[in-house]
Write a structure and sequence with these properties.
By secondary structure, the protein is an alpha/beta fold. About 45% of the residues lie in helices and about 20% in strands. The protein contains 15 helices and 20 strands. The strands form five sheets. Strands 3-2-1-6-5-4 form a six-stranded antiparallel beta sheet, with helices on both faces. Strands 8-10-11-13-12 form a five-stranded mixed beta sheet. A hairpin with a 2-residue loop joins strand 2 (about 65-70) and strand 3 (about 75).
Length: about 550
């Protein structure tokens, strides 16, 4: 046991180190992510005296690759050595807080105990890993020093990310304004020429000349109206001012309207258009005008960026309770680095003048906004420049009245009973949902974080897990993977979260979730999902029930 004097000295040293670490972010204003990583590793190695090595992996702005460094008492290791250590540590970077995993000491004999500290939410800015052979490592003081250093690096990295996003947005805005000025001037030139023609024609103009001039003016005015409508639409969507006028519509009728709007452009390009729809009627709950606008924008986009005589194919197919509409072309394609940003404002794939086909380059942003307002999603695919593009729109199918009545009658005749685990760190949300599900006849348990969920799933053996994603101690992504391992039978995992972007849905799917619902989830939607899960045999709640299948 240390003396009071030793404890006082240790406390003073800790306070000095904390003060030094707290000032780090101010010194990193002009440092790139690699410099931040190297500086952080060097400072932490001096501060955490028990540490034998420090590994830091930082993630800066999206365009910058991840960088990683390793510092030991002899200085910074080579880049190859840092990558080698990083590969060995990768499986441990998502370790549960509080755990101290061990690895074979990469810089000596024996085992090294690790302290893994994420930077940012779920390590979205990187990780700090300290290693030591000390049996009591990491102590509370060690974790405190490492945490403060990681927090300071997170502040600097997040600032650089925000700065990079602002710079990129500003650059694309300037390009957009230049395109806007160009596109608005284009119709003005022929309109001015038409006015001169009419002035020179005198009081008795040639009828043929007058008809030609009038037709040209109508086309150019229509082009300006289209440009202005697009600007207003994207502004309304951005500000949340678009109000959909939904009604029950057939997909075939919406596609027909879209084809009528874009057929002139397709024919002018000499393209071959193929349309394939399901033989049975598909009913949607949608705004027919806005949905037709979505598909006409995609078809117009395909026609504009496909060389003359190309091929455009529109297909629709039912996948479960969704309809997937695909628009495929043999056009200029999309580079891989542009695919994640293709639906963003002010983004254009090909800015070359010879490819200029008119328009502001906001059509795809409009498509995404309108599709998401309908509760759907849109995705772009391409194998690269010159290999064509494919756009996929996913929308929920509206059940026909007789199907709805049949489903309701079936539920009333034989109430659905499930073993359901509700996981949410918001206790009110978890408890209220559990009460609703219990009143509907299901057997329900609750857990309030990921670690509790794993234990509850192992003991309760649920048929369905309804889980939040962002939770303390262990997030929903990690918990889902552990639950899959613990539950040997079939369990349906449903993410229920406020995160609803396509990247969030891809991430939940990769973690093992079967469905992704965005909060607040309508009870009817949840009922419909639970009812869609078929039961192979009557549930027996005295034993484990694994009778659910998708």
């Amino acid at each position: 046991m240390g003396t009071p004097l030793d404890e006082t000295r240790s406390l003073r040293r800790c306070i000095r180190e904390l003060a030094a670490l707290s000032a780090l972010s101010a010194a990193w204003g002009r440092t790139d992510p690699k410099g931040i990583a190297a500086s952080l590793a060097e400072v932490l190695l001096r501060s955490v005296t028990a540490a034998e090595f420090l590994y830091v992996r930082t993630l800066g702005p999206p365009q910058d690759p991840a960088c990683e460094v390793v510092h030991t008492a002899r200085g910074e290791e080579t880049a190859d050595r840092a990558r080698e250590i990083g590969r060995a540590l990768q499986p441990l970077l998502l370790s549960s807080p509080g755990a101290a995993p061990q690895i074979s000491n990469p810089f000596g004999e024996g085992e090294a105990r690790l302290a893994v500290i994420p930077m940012g939410y779920d390590g979205d800015c990187g990780y700090v890993v300290a290693g030591s052979r000390q049996p009591d490592f990491p102590t509370q003081v060690d974790r405190l020093l490492l945490g403060v250093g990681a927090n300071q690096a997170t502040v600097a990295l997040q600032h650089k990310r925000a700065e990079a996003v602002l710079q990129e947005t500003d650059r694309r805005k300037d390009e957009f304004l230049a395109i806007l000025a160009h596109e608005l001037r284009n119709p003005l030139a022929p309109l001015r020429n038409a006015l001169h023609v009419m002035s020179l024609a005198g009081p008795n103009p040639n009828p043929a000349t007058l008809d030609q001039t009038r037709g040209m003016m109508e086309r150019q005015v229509q082009q300006m109206v289209h440009l202005i409508d697009d600007l207003l639409d994207i502004s309304r969507i951005t500000r949340g001012k678009v109000e959909l006028r939904k009604e029950r519509v057939e997909l075939a009728a919406v596609i027909r309207d879209a084809l009528e709007a874009c057929r002139p452009l397709i024919e002018a390009g000499g393209h071959e258009l193929t349309v394939s729809l399901p033989p049975e009627p598909i009913t949607l709950d949608a705004d027919p005008t806005r949905l037709a606008q979505v598909f006409s924008n995609l078809l117009n986009n395909a026609a504009k960026y496909t060389p003359r005589g190309g091929s455009i194919r529109l297909t629709a197919e039912q996948q479960g309770n969704e309809i997937v509409v695909k628009v495929r072309d043999t056009g200029i394609g999309i580079p891989a680095d542009m695919l994640p940003r293709i639906f963003e404002m002010f983004t254009q794939v090909d800015r070359s003048l010879e490819r200029s086909q008119g328009g502001l380059g906001i059509g795809l942003s409009l498509v995404r906004g309108l599709v998401e307002l309908h509760g759907g999603s849109v995705e772009a695919r391409s194998e690269g420049p010159g290999r064509g593009s494919e756009f996929l729109v996913r929308l929920s199918i509206h059940s026909l009245p007789q199907e709805v009545h049949a489903a309701q009658a079936a539920r009333q005749a034989a109430p659905l009973r499930r073993r359901i685990l509700v996981v949410d760190d918001n206790r009110d949300a978890a408890d209220s949902l559990a009460l609703l599900l219990t009143l509907q006849g299901s057997e329900v348990r609750t857990a309030y974080d990921g670690l509790e969920a794993i234990d509850a799933a192992a003991a309760f053996c649920p048929d369905v897990v309804l889980s939040d994603l962002g939770m303390p101690r262990m997030n929903g992504y990690e918990a889902a993977q552990k639950i899959r391992e613990k539950c040997s039978g079939r369990v349906v995992l449903v993410a229920m979260t406020g995160w609803g972007q396509e990247e969030d849905k891809r991430r939940s799917s990769a973690a093992g979730f079967d469905y992704h619902l965005v909060k607040p989830v309508a009870l009817d939607d949840l009922d419909q999902l639970l009812a869609s899960l078929e039961v192979r045999e009557a549930p027996d709640y005295g034993t484990r029930n694994t009778g659910l299948r998708l």
